[in-house]
Amino acid sequence: MSSNQTTSLSIVLNAFGYSEKDCVVTPLGNGLINTTYLVNTGKKSVVLQQLNNQVFKQPEHVFDNADDINQHLNIKQTANQYAMQPTQQYKTNDKKNHVLDNGEYWRCMRLIENCYTLEKIENNQQAKLVANAFAQFTSALSDFNSKNLASIIPDFHNLTARLAQLENATSQTESERKKQAQSLIDFIHSQKAFCQEVKEYIKILPLRVTHNDTKINNLLFSYESNKPTAVIDLDTCMAGYLMHDFGDMVRTCCSSLPEDSAEINSMTINFKILSALTEAYINGLAETLTDIERSSLLIGVKLMPFMLSIRFLTDYLNGDQYFKTQYSEHNLMRAKNQMQLYKLFCQNHEKLTEIILRKPVLNAIA
Ligand code: GN1
Ligand code: MG
User: Across-strand partners of 255?
Assistant: First the structure.
């Protein structure tokens, strides 16, 4: 850690009532945006996070949204309507939910103890648990007015806006990167019919509170029960469409490969897992799920890898300003990987339709 960061860290820890000399700080998690640490304060362990304020232009909104959602979930939990643990942001000595130091925004959160995360689903039973957990989260927030949440990143999951950003990046890049990206750009241009289908759905779908980052590693599993115990990373919780959350969950649970694997030619879809996820998700949402949302789930499954591929490709063309990368072609590889997943979903359209749209849904959580 540089001396600047050390100074910053000690100011931040002090603001939350800890002294740097008592603390052991280690990196935590593998998010692509924020920087997260596990801090052992000598008395307990907490999570400290530096928010990426290039990505989150109004960090206060992220912290305030999280407080509001946590409060709602706490009420639901007390009323036995939410079986998982809400997250919690600690207050500073002067009762704020964050510290601003030297232009950087920090928060401190409760560590949910004795938990682990998964990068890959191992069996159908686990898939049912995952889908039920994300469905419970969304269901518990179904009576939270999404208008009361700040729009954290405008147009975050707006395909039209993401396509425009890609156009913009393409027109401003005259480099080797554009050459490398060209075949993917051409393919994206060939998907006009799908983009139109998405546009039609958006006109009729209801807005609700969505998580917008329902990848499998945003779920904590308890070591004791081996069941999900908390949905974490509320950074992008805001008004959105259910198909985005379902699609993002499927994207990370059903591909045989991690999102940045280079082995894309060997990628396969696990349809048994897809089936288990779909049943448990639909049953978990119960009567909070509308018919139009139900039929949009199929679109969401294709949309999320397609849109994330566009986002990775745009960042590649922009010179890797947004997502953290480990090597120079990392974003391009991620873009290729996610587009391969989209292609596989499209090639298996019939099978997808049969699994996602069949009625009635079998009784899940056997
Ligand atoms: C980012 O930082 P992380 O890993 O929570 C991104 C998501 C992407 C994800 C891909 C604010 O999430 O939208 O799906 O990477 N978050 C933001 O791994 O852009
Ligand atoms: Mg996130």
Answer: 269
Query: HSE-up of 172 (CA within 13 Å, CB side)?
Result: 12
Choose among 313, 267, 284, 292: nearest CA to 357: 292
**Three-class DSSP category at 285:** helix
CATH number 3.40.50.300 given to 3-111: no
Dist. CA 179 → ligand 2 center (Å): 30
124-140 and 271-285 helices, crossing angle to 10°: 30
Give the closest residue to 323 by CA, choosing from 274, 267, 265, 259: 259
The whole-angstrom separation of Cα 341 and Cα 267 is: 8
5-24 pLDDT, tens digit each: 557 899 999 999 999 999 99
> What are the residue ranges in the chain where pLDDT is below 70?
1-6, 360-366
- Residues at CB less than 6 angstroms from ligand 1: 31-33, 55, 213, 233, 235-236, 259, 308
Query: What residue owns the CA closest to ligand 1's atom 18?
Result: 32
Q: Which CATH superfamily is domain 124-358 in?
A: Aminoglycoside phosphotransferase (APH), C-terminal lobe (3.90.1200.10)
314 Cβ contact partners less than 8 Å away, ≥ 6 residues apart = 162, 165, 166, 169
State the pTM of this model.
0.94
Strand, helix or coil for residue 135: helix
Closest ligand by atom to 156 CA: 1
Task: Map out the domains of the chain as residue ranges.
Answer: 3-111, 124-358
Residue whose CA is at the smallest distance from ligand 1 atom 17: 33
- Atom 7 (ligand 1) nearest CA: 213
Q: What is the pLDDT of residues 52-67, one digit of tens each?
A: 999 999 999 999 999 9
Q: Are strands 115-116 and 219-222 parallel, antiparallel or unpaired?
A: antiparallel
Q: Considering only CA atoms, which of 194, 189, 191, 179 is closest in space to residue 332?
A: 179
* Strand-pair partners of 37: 27, 48
Which ligand minimizes its atom distance to the CA of 335?
1
Contacts (Cβ under 8 Å, ≥6 apart) of 86 = 69, 70, 73, 74, 77, 230
311-338 confidence digits (pLDDT tens): 999 999 999 999 999 999 999 999 999 9
- In the DSSP assignment, the letter for residue 93 is T
